[in-house]
Every structure is written in C-alpha cells, then in structure tokens.
Write a structure and sequence with these properties.
This protein has 3 helices and 7 strands. By secondary structure, the chain is α+β, with helices and mostly antiparallel strands. The chain is globular, with a radius of gyration of 18 Å.
C-alpha cells in the first residue's frame, strides 16, 4: 500500500513490519545477529528441505535431546524436526516468541540460527511432515515443552499486585 503526498509516493509500513523492525533492534537475547567477535559472519542456520516453503518465515525452538522423544507424541502436528547429539530443533513460524517466554531449557532461535558453539555438522533432519509446510504449531509445542519440563505456562502464573 502506498500513500501519495505532495513530495510523491511513500510506502506505508504494516504493523507486522514495524513490530519485526523494533524487535530486531531491541532484542539483545535473540539469536541471529553478528557473532561476539564482531566479524559479522552470517550464522549457521537450519534450512527448510527442498520442495517445502515457509510462507510465514521460520525460526526454530531447540530443547535438550532427552526431551525430544517425549514431545513428539504430545503434538497434534509435527513439522520439520532436526536433531544432533545435544538438541532437537522444531521449525516454527517466524515470531513465535512474540509475547511468549519459552521455558528453560528450551532455546528460541530467530531465523533458525544455530548458536556459535553448536557442533559440526548441522543437525540432521529426523522428521519431515507430509505436504509442503515445515511448521510445528508453536502453541501446542510451547504447552508440550512446559509439560515435559514441569514449567507453568506464562499466562497461567499468578500475578502479584
């Protein structure tokens, strides 16, 4: 959508674009920016398998490998899942951490960027869903992670006035 004015045409930004820009600028704990060395080398990322599309963009949620087999049967739909010796990684739509704090020991990786210290090679694809969409629904995944880690979901916690 464009807005015309006296000086010409100006592109209006959607609310979603503004939220993403603000989050990218103000989120020190989000993975995916330049490394601590300041070299700015691109992070290693999980990729969507050939033949699949990610129309909503994609991020990843990692949990320690011991929780992976416990989570699979708790999910109504399992998207792409990657694993290495230490972690299992679920592909979720971009911004699935918006207003949501994933419980420890889960790790949310913006852009499916792997931590700098992650081992070589990249985690292997261990589950590919039918169809062309790679996502695991984030809310059921969040609830399942809370369940297996013994964490109360953030919206269920008691607020103290």
């Amino acid at each position: 959508m464009a807005v015309s004015g006296a000086s010409g045409s100006v592109r209006a930004l959607s609310f979603d674009t503004l939220v993403r820009l603000g989050r990218d600028l103000a989120a020190p704990g989000r993975t995916g920016g330049p490394g601590p060395s300041g070299a700015g080398a691109p992070p290693r990322r999980l990729s969507v398998p050939d033949g699949m599309t990610a129309p909503l963009g994609y991020d990843a949620v990692a949990v320690p490998a011991r929780f992976g087999p416990l989570l699979m049967p708790r999910l109504p739909r399992v998207g792409c899942v990657y694993a290495d010796e230490a972690h299992w990684w679920w592909i979720v739509p971009s911004d699935s951490d918006y207003a949501l704090r994933w419980p420890a020991p889960a790790h949310y990786a913006t852009g499916a960027a792997l931590p700098d210290a992650s081992p070589e090679p990249l985690p292997a694809l261990i589950h590919r869903p039918d169809g062309t969409v790679p996502y695991t629904p984030p809310i059921p995944l969040y609830l399942a992670v809370c369940r297996v880690t013994g964490t109360t979901p953030a919206w269920s916690r008691t607020l103290n006035a």
